[in-house]
Amino acid sequence: MPETTSTEKRILFFFRIILKVIFLLISLFIFACSLDMLSNAFQLISGKLAGEIFLDHSILHNPISGSTIGLLVTAVLQSSTIATSIIITMVSSSMLKVSAAIPMLMGANVGTSITNTLVALMYAGNREEFGRAFAGATVHDFFNWFSVLVLLPLELITEFLSYLSDKIGHFIKISGEDESPGILKVLTGPITERIIQLDGKIFIDIVIGRETQNKSLIKIWCKTFENVTFSNVSVPSPENCTSPTFCWTEGKVTWTLMNITYRQNITKCKHLFVNTNYNDATVGFILLTFSLFILAISLALIIKILNSELRGPVAEMIKKYINKDFPYPFAWLTGYFTILVGAVLTFTFQSSSVFTSIITPMIGIDMISLERAYPLILGSNIGTSTITILAALSGPRNALRKSFQVTLCHFLFNLFGIILWYPIPGMRLPVHSARRLGNLTATYRWFAIVYVIFCFFVLPTLAFCFSIADTTVLISVGIPMFFLPFIVVYLHAFNLLHLLPLWMTSLKPWDDLIISIMNLCTQCGENISHKCKNSKLNRFIARRSLPTIKTDLGPDQNQRHSSIRDRLFYVKKSDDTVKEIQSTNDTVTEIQSANQQFSINDASTD
Predict the structure, then answer these.
(1) HSE (side-chain half, CA atoms, 13 Å) at 247
(2) Whole-model pTM?
(3) Residue 540: its pLDDT value, please?
């Protein structure tokens, strides 16, 4: 009998583990779908505006404004894939030089890290977990920021990325390949494509200057037929002819031969918004609300499942093996192997945002240490660079060389960033900076929102404005801003920060101010609520509260009174006595004047 009980417990234990693994996988799947829909929502809300930013090529050739545009567009669209695809298209169509595209790719690399930073905000309810999760998310931010601050000036001075990518491109034999969707797109596609489908060609049409004024990003026709014919077309004058050979005049009409594309729509797409009358922005806001709701629920389920299982001996065992180094003398290879694992997983799922966003909750519950997550995130940067290379190879053959070169620059940027900030432990500044920021946001949680707004929107916008401003403005503002970090480092090194006001060296005064404002708002809300309670209607309700109503049915149980004045109120008192009160005209008038707040229903019994 004891053996049978023990066997049943084991079976129930394994059955419970299998169920939780299934629920975890389902939650991860829903989480990935919500991120995809979130990206679609941002593209619908501001996609056309982001695409039109690329139209001003004079601004794009400024390296500072180009990098900030790449950052802002990626942050707004929540998709580095679209931003890099636009850049690749502009280079392949000779609208943009490779040297001008490199700063834009660097900016897009910074903008893509906003997704997992937003995911970390979901942990704000628990200070300890929030500090770890935010540190794990922002280590990606700091790596990208530090790499841009070092490699962008170096590229502007030496153009080493352009030179290396050009030389490597001449040694490698490249040929176009068919584009194949990633595993993640194959898995989430059947769900997300039933909700919304977008036409990615609209972004390209905006960039190359085609007319897209009345076109919607929402994809309507999934199957079309295009036929190109060489036909006679009338033109205003001989100057508009396609060629002098194919140009003739009949009377007052000038004719030429031109390729005419005939497009026939065959099959409509099947998703929720295919027949909608709403504009793109309205659909985008609907999707944004829905995707954020699903994102929060799926993330809460993931955290709950992981927290329920990863405690005690199980948690210690998982932490031991995940965060364990290789045996001596190969311990130094552990980090590089982890980078390779991150690159392979990102390449497999074809999405660095999803991969890094899944790592963030694991850092929050202390399943993966920040030191182990750091090489995984670096590997995801390499993986996403490889994805852009494959995207370039699937492009047109006549523009393959330029597309390959610009994506190779993206790969080399991430590779040199790893060489700068990983091999030497003392140079792993992103880890140290992210840990300090995590501890700071755990104490002052409101600062996390300030960080996201400032680093991804305010600071790039200011840099963009300064880059296109007049030289006098740039010198008068840019030089003090350039020397400000050096002054801060000098004051910190000589312990002179105490000479500055407290509000410049600590967040405590700002925290007290925010708490005071919140308390004031709470007090105002209580005062408004108190005034509402003391209103004329509420005073009347308090003075004459509605009693329990019972209808005097009389001797005949099916008889109903025809007027409310003929009814009796039976008021049940605290001493369990019943008092009969005859209703009056005044009582009825008062009840009717109270907006019919109280309704009297007829009671009937079988």
Answers:
(1) 11
(2) 0.68
(3) 60
